[in-house]
Design brief:
Layout: H1 7-18, E1 23-26, H2 28-34, E2 43-46, H3 50-56, E3 60-64, E4 69-74, E5 77-83, E6 85-87, E7 99-101, H4 105-110, E8 120-122, E9 127-129, H5 134-140, E10 142-143, H6 149-155, H7 158-170, E11 173-174, H8 176-184, H9 186-189, H10 194-205, H11 211-220, H12 223-226, H13 247-257, H14 264-271, H15 276-279, H16 288-302, H17 307-318, H18 330-340, H19 345-357, H20 367-381, H21 394-401, H22 407-422, H23 429-436
Parallel strand pairs: 2-5, 10-11
Antiparallel strand pairs: 1-2, 1-8, 3-4, 4-5, 6-7, 8-9
Bound molecules: adenosine-5'-triphosphate and magnesium ion.
Length: 445
């Protein structure tokens, strides 16, 4: 067998074995070693109790001591070491009622979700423990529950989402009985905390082709539990010759075409046209960008995305319909920069490229470098795109007009900014202050 195992990992196993305990690398790490993946997350399973593990290493954090997990720090890198467990009955379809430690590796492997995740490896003896034909399933590219899938998914509703996630990430199929069990245990999966669903979704979006996971979830009935809005796009036709997909598959194809180095763009891509069905008027979809942005916010809040993620996706979806032509005036380009925000423009372009890639007849994106160059030029030349770049601020407005702080001040500043966007040369303190008097706002602006 002989895998390349880092010295720190060997040190953990050796230390525990030297003191008379068993210790194996386990779970995803063994799976990834067998798949030839580099730098897996190293997890360990041992018959030593958490307090015994704690005594053997210098730096140990009791991360999940109730569940038998401690984190051993070696050269500041964390390694999770978990005591052999055999989970007892589950109360809420997610958390075992009580965790029972066991002295048997077999018991510990039996509680794990899928055969390919139930492998253990002792790197000192070069011994692979494979009690459920995990290696065969790895070769056959199959996600198969350990034991009876129906019982296993009833115990923990997250497992069915994990099955879809692993199938997507690894490009595997879900074994027939395991897949059939998903739709029979939806009432359990429904109770899973949305935070957990969020984590799985993020991992799925990092796959080469996340549409595989969304489709698996749809076919099994999971998508209806978490993002039912997406299914409304099925069979909603779009104008030819530009489109070859209905709205649902166009959203999925756009997600697949997006770069996967961070989840925000594929996420925005998945939701960018979510409300097209609601806006359909013949072959036109007026206002679908705004409506889709509103619905994207609802979906992402439900799935516990951070405020920053929600806002970024909202902005990208709401602005994805820009139509640049060389006729845009400099003022129009400045308004575009201001609306989208400088920090999001490249992401919006990336979304547009994915959107176009998911069409049948590409309207092209040749104008993007042209627009990019114009933006660069305008930024180098002018300086007023945001309120903070104006030559006067709220204090100046209040002093000049002798008014108190309040929404009126912001309104006045915004009116000034509109003028400056049209004519950047106005952006100096003298002109703007003069613009405020004496008969502001009607005649000056
Ligand atoms: P990755 O870290 O690449 O996402 P992984 O297989 O390491 O994949 P983790 O969530 O890190 O997944 O879990 C580590 C191991 O713990 C799994 O390989 C599996 O053996 C076990 N495991 C995790 N979650 C569950 C679960 N819900 N039910 C049963 N076993 C689980
Ligand atoms: Mg892991």
């Amino acid at each position: 067998m002989k895998f390349h195992i880092p010295t720190e990992v060997l040190y953990i196993v050796k230390t525990l074995k030297k003191h008379g305990f068993e210790c194996y690398i386990v779970g995803g790490a063994v799976r990834d070693l067998l798949l030839g993946k580099k730098n897996p997350d190293w997890d360990f399973t041992t018959n030593a109790k958490p307090e015994e593990v704690t005594k053997l290493f210098k730096k140990v954090i009791p991360t999940g001591i109730k569940f038998g997990t401690v984190t051993v720090l070696i050269k500041k890198v964390p390694y999770e070491v978990t005591t052999y467990r055999s989970d007892e009955s589950y109360i809420d379809g997610r958390h075992p009622e009580n965790v029972k430690f066991t002295t048997s590796l077999e018991e510990d492997l039996k509680r794990r979700d899928f055969t390919i995740n139930a492998l253990a490896y002792d790197p000192i003896e070069d011994k692979l423990v494979d009690l459920f034909d995990g290696q065969k399933d790895l070769k056959d590219k199959l996600i198969r529950a350990v034991g009876n899938p129906l019982e296993r998914f009833k115990e923990d509703g997250l497992r069915s989402i994990r099955a879809c996630r692993f199938a997507t990430k690894l490009g595997f199929k879900i074994e027939k009985e395991t897949f059939a069990a998903i739709s029979k245990t939806l009432s359990v999966t429904k109770k899973v905390a949305f935070e957990r669903v969020h984590d799985e979704l993020i991992k799925m979006l990092g796959a080469n082709q996340p549409s595989i996971g969304i489709e698996l979830m749809r076919k099994a009935g999971l998508l209806k539990l978490f993002i039912p809005e997406l299914e409304k796009g099925i069979k909603v036709r779009q104008p030819k010759p530009y489109h070859k997909y209905d709205v649902y598959y166009h959203n999925l194809a756009c997600m697949d075409a997006a770069p996967k180095d961070q989840p925000i763009i594929p996420l925005a891509a998945l939701l960018h046209d979510v409300e097209k069905p609601k806006c359909k008027d013949g072959m036109k979809f007026y206002g679908h960008d705004q409506k889709s942005a509103e619905t994207a916010v609802k979906i992402l809040r439900r799935l516990k995305f951070s405020n920053a993620d929600v806002e970024k996706v909202r902005l990208l979806v709401a602005n994805h319909m820009f139509h640049y032509t060389p006729k845009w005036t400099d003022a129009a380009v400045r308004r575009f920069i201001r609306k989208v925000g400088l920090e999001s423009i490249e992401e919006l372009f990336t979304l547009r490229i994915a959107d176009v890639a998911a069409m049948a007849k590409s309207p092209g994106t040749k104008y993007l470098p042209v627009l990019r160059r114009r933006i660069k030029k305008i930024l180098a030349r002018d300086n007023a795109l945001h309120l903070k770049d104006l030559a006067i601020d709220g204090n100046d407005v209040m002093k000049t007009l002798n008014i108190k702080p309040g929404p009126e001040v912001g309104k006045i500043l915004n009116q000034l900014l509109e003028k400056v966007l049209d004519e950047p040369s106005l952006n100096n303190k003298k002109t703007l202050t003069e613009a405020l008097r004496p008969s502001f706002p009607k005649t000056c602006l």
